[in-house]
Amino acid sequence: MAPDHSSTLDALISQVQTAPDEGTASEISNQLWEYWADAPDETAQEILNRGMRKRAAWDLLGAREDFDALISYCPDYAEGYNQRAFVNFLRQDYEVALPDLERAIELSPRHIGALSGRALSLVGLGREAEAQDALAAALELNPWLPERSLYKPPEPIPQTGDDI
């Protein structure tokens, strides 16, 4: 089981929501990632770190193998699913990324990275309406996300007839 950082994460999410500028929001977002990437134990942390190093070096197959191992070892740790989804996203295998993102969000409903990753995967699949809904949910938690430029607010419903 991953360490419970929920109160700290809630405080950081509140801070990013009211951040005065993009630079401040970016610093807060980095702090959020530190907590999401805090694995349940030393073995899980090593597997996560190894997979992230491989991903950073574009060894995507090696990274995916590590994240598969992490998920097998810690099936209730959201970041394992999120990282495997990210590898599949980088491989442009959006359909494979989605179930992992759904599981990460199920385990950690306020995981902004998984929420925005879900939106971007839906964009990649051409599922624009769903992507906009997913992006709106992520932007509610962090209005400074780099993906905010992709958000298109819903069109207002035109009024017809006379008001009663």
UniProtKB/TrEMBL annotation:
TPR repeats: from-to residues: 78-111
Question: Which chain positions lie within coiled-coil regions?
Answer: none
Q: Which UniProt keywords apply?
A: Repeat, TPR repeat, Transferase
Q: Does the keyword rRNA processing apply?
A: no
Name the domain of life this protein comes from: Bacteria
Q: Keyword check for Transferase, yes or no.
A: yes
What InterPro entries does its record include? TPR-like_helical_dom_sf, TPR_rpt, Ycf3
Q: Which GO terms describe its molecular function?
A: transferase activity
Q: Please name the PROSITE patterns in this protein's record.
A: TPR
Name it: Putative O-linked N-acetylglucosamine transferase, SPINDLY family
